[in-house]
Amino acid sequence: MKNLYYKKARFRLYKADCLKFLKKIPENSVDMIFGDPPYFLSSGTFTCQNGKMVSVKKGDWDLSNGTKKNFKLNYANNF
User: Fold this and answer.
1) How far apart are the first and last CA of the chain?
2) Closest Cα to residue 42, out of 24, 55, 33?
3) For the segment 7-60, what is each residue's pLDDT rounded down to a tens digit?
4) Dihedral sign, Cα of residue 15, residue 34, residue 76, residue 45
5) 55 pairs with which residues across the strands?
6) Domain boundaries, the chain
7) Are 19 and 77 in contact (CB under 8 A)?
8) Do 70 and 61 touch, CB atoms closer than 8 A?
9) How many CA atoms lie less than 13 Å away from 45 in the CB half-sphere?
10) Distance CA 50, CA 58 (A)
11) Does an H or E element contain 19, and which?
């Protein structure tokens, strides 16, 4: 299956959009799902870490789209 990230005996780790990926797998074939949704913690600015200036931007996927759009995204993905 596409998006296979890591494989070991009786274990598979996939990196994918879970809402799209779940539609492709057979029912009752999953023991656990680990999700890492966007928490909108990236601000595109910088912080000080160990005396050095470092970016807090994790990626465009983690940038806020504003409170209303963030709420709509989270609400739409809530089962």
Assistant:
1) 25
2) 55
3) 999 888 888 887 788 888 888 888 887 776 777 777 778 888 899 998 888 778
4) negative
5) 46
6) 1-36, 39-79
7) yes
8) no
9) 6
10) 18
11) helix 18-21
